[in-house]
Specification:
Radius of gyration: 23 Å
Number of helices: 8
Strand order of the largest sheet: 1-2-3-4
Structural class: alpha+beta
Largest sheet: 4 strands, mixed
Helix content: 55-70%
Strand content: 5-15%
Distance between the termini: 57 Å
Number of strands: 4
Shape: elongated
Length: 233
Amino acid sequence: MARKETAADAANPGRLKQIALTYKMTRKADKKIGLVLAAVGIVTFGVFLAIGFLIGHPIYLGILGFLLAFLATAIVFGRRAERAAFGQMEGQPGAAAAVLDNVGRGWTTTPAVAMNRSQDVVHRAVGKAGIVLVAEGNPNRVKSLLAAEKKKMTRIVADVPVHDLIVGTGEDQIPLKKLRTTMLKLPRVLNGPQVTATNDRLRAMGDLMSNMPLPKGPMPKGMKMPRGGPKLR
């Protein structure tokens, strides 16, 4: 029992420190975050407290209002922090891979299954919606890279739907902040065993990542492809 309490006490400062760090990072991109959170908390609590006085139960409604104000503040903070993070990642090579890693359970992500010398990249995610190829880079160059990878997927797993998305802010492109939502809205056509079988077939095929190590998350802007490495697709 004592060990559990000690572990909990040690974890709390870590969570508080993480929240504080997230707030500082968010505030750099969102200067009004403090005012917005304060307004949400005060308004939510004030509304319930006012209702409590009107019906003659200010204490009960005040407690409920406090809890709901805390919940509403946490939700708003999470969304604005996520938006700020996407804003900072926008345009960085490898940003889409970082988002794919956090799509949710049931998805298997393989970053950089195809790449060219200009650092245009195609990432792959496999889930119940099938295979999703996510490309990032120059729109004119990345389309041919994406088409080649999609053709390869169709040839290897002909019975699995293959979706292709291009991350960006241009026409027919998906903004980074909407990538996760877009993928989760795709129709689910595969069951668990089918997803596993698809992953096994693709894993047997191999990919660029199995031959050339790349850092997780956004890649350094100055990174160049090594000479004498694996043949690029």
